[in-house]
Amino acid sequence: MSTTFADLHVAAPLLERLREQNMETPTPVQAEAIPVIWEGKDALVESPTGTGKTYAYLLPILSKADIDKKDVQAIVLAPTHELVMQIARVAEGLLPGQDTAVLPLIGGVDVKRQIEKLKKKPMLIVATPGRLLELIDQRKVKLHEVKTVVVDEADRMLDAGFGKPVFDVMKRTLRDTQRLFFSATIPEAIIDQASAVTKDEVVIRASAPEGAQGVAHLYLLTDPRKKVDTLRRLLRLVNVRSSIVFVNQIDKVDEIVSKLNYHHLPCRLLHREATKEDRARTIQQFRDGVFPVLITTDVSARGIDIPGVECVVHYDPAPDADTYVHRSGRTGRMGRAGLVFSVITSQELFIIRKFAKQTGLSITEKIMAHGALQDPKESRGGKPAEKQTETRQKPAKTGKSKPAVSKAGAGTKNGKIGKPRT
């Protein structure tokens, strides 16, 4: 008999919100993490991107909270403005009618307005660590009633850039405050760092939901001078509603944007130098399907949850295997099918092979020929690809379109994306 959210003691009003969203059965990370959080234990939770980690910590936190108590009872820390706002929206959706219960705090906005909102006594604060510390130092945020602190995207939040402010926040909470760390990847180094502020912590490594359609991991070899054109042909070939293209340096983007737009593939750039309003507008328009291709760096896209993304392209190789997993996790969310491509030169092939070895993924070479993605061996004799590898499809008329290559999808196992099914 499968576990239900009621079995996990999720509060009745929250159960009603979940039913409205057609959420009936907990994902593995929710089923494993919620009981541990209910018990008040510290925990480090690893689960593939898109498996419902936000609900895994919000549901028990909000179920345990006293809505009538006029104090901050829980804090969620996140690395980017976009992720803070996204988490806050999810929490607000679980608490309809409680307009002041959740407060997002981010830098780059008028701090006086945030101080005014703090006077309304929110129950949950979602914040970037820098702005939260600023308000704590001004004695505008009091931590004496905080029962739980969550660090989302923990692998990034404990790196050199964020580690100190995160730990500064932790040190200012009471000794018995519950500390939770969530991420798609939690290596041993992060566990060692977190142990400085946790006690008898539980480590959970959850898998993706059963029956996941899976993600196919593929790569295309190209000449450096033809990389943009290879990207254009690839996006045209897979012909999906939404793709995210990752680049390492913004200075490469102008050529990509110019060529894609010239060939009637509308795209936009998401980058950290843009204003908060421009970034929010770009993400919302991409989510709404106004344009099909979003070009971004890792910093801009980290943690962004856009469920309908069908294809991810690594235009530049990820700097490391963990980043490859995070980028790739923008597609195939909640068990959907997805496509992940790396467009690489022969000099970069060793990077893909290294990622495959470190992650346990099968990353397969493909070429574009005969209007399809083919195995290189099949193409040498001029033979058309097998029917199931055909990737050309008509534009979908509804929002339920699937990526073109679904039979080559990959399942997940032991918290990592698994090998493609055959």
Automatic annotation (TrEMBL):
Q: Which family does it belong to?
A: Belongs to the DEAD box helicase family.
For this entry, the protein name equals: RNA helicase
Q: Where is the composition biased (Basic and acidic residues)?
A: 375-393
Pfam families under this entry?
DEAD, Helicase_C
An example molecular function term from Gene Ontology annotations = ATP binding
Q: Which SMART domains match?
A: DEXDc, HELICc
* Domain DEAD-box RNA helicase Q intervals: 3-31
What cellular-component terms does GO give this entry? cytosol; ribosome
Which biological process terms from the Gene Ontology are attached to this UniProt entry?
A: response to cold
**Xref: PANTHER family:** ATP-DEPENDENT RNA HELICASE YFML-RELATED (PTHR47963:SF7), DEAD-BOX ATP-DEPENDENT RNA HELICASE 47, MITOCHONDRIAL (PTHR47963)
Highest taxon of source:
Bacteria
The chain positions of domain Helicase C-terminal read 230-374
